[in-house]
């Protein structure tokens, strides 16, 4: 989240007449202009910083507008998106609160690179899967296919049976982890700070010139 605020008192002391009275209004408009620029830049950059962000993630970007009585503008994410994007920005470890962190291994993903809704329930409902720990690895495992059985060729009536086809090993579909580590990828804060520093002054100056011209 980025919070932009402007103290116009020092500037107002150097102004007079219409410019002085219009300064708070112009400052609010300038802050809102820059907030919009930052939001647009961050929305575009999400696709570069994060692999296939969902529509829910991109729509979580929001702005709070400044007013002439409160010269503060805010650009950030809504609470739900901010919670899971935090570690993408800072890096660190996400630990399971009550249940394990679920990590797909051999599981079909959607176009955003995530497991579809209900994927865990469907995986566990299959007759060839089970949830458990194998050789120290906890998760949802798929049992190997059992080869077809047939009567061996031999003496009539021997009834000897054999297996056709090799029996392959267990396949891990989903892993259960106590924690997952993240490297910082989301460059939201440094990018927003750069834009704010470079654009806020010119934006307020433009808005002040427009306000003075209109007032006259």
Write a brief structural summary.
With 216 residues, the protein is of the alpha+beta class. The chain has helices at 9-13, 17-49, 55-58, 79-90, 119-125, 188-215; strands at residues 2-5, 61-64, 72-77, 92-95, 101-104, 129-134, 137-142, 148-151, 161-164, 171-177, 179-182. The relative contact order is 0.21.
Task: Tell me about this structure.
With about 220 residues, the chain is an alpha+beta fold. About 40% of the residues lie in helices and about 25% in strands. The chain has 2 domains: about 1-90 and about 185-215, no CATH class; about 100-180, no CATH class. The protein contains 6 helices and 11 strands.
Query: What is the molecular shape?
Result: rod-shaped
Tally of strands: 11
Count of DSSP-assigned helices: 6
Proportion in β-strands? 15-25%
Which structural class matches the secondary elements? alpha+beta
Report the span from N to C terminus: 38 Å
Main sheet attributes: strand count, strand direction, barrel closure: 4 strands, antiparallel
Mean pLDDT, nearest integer?
85
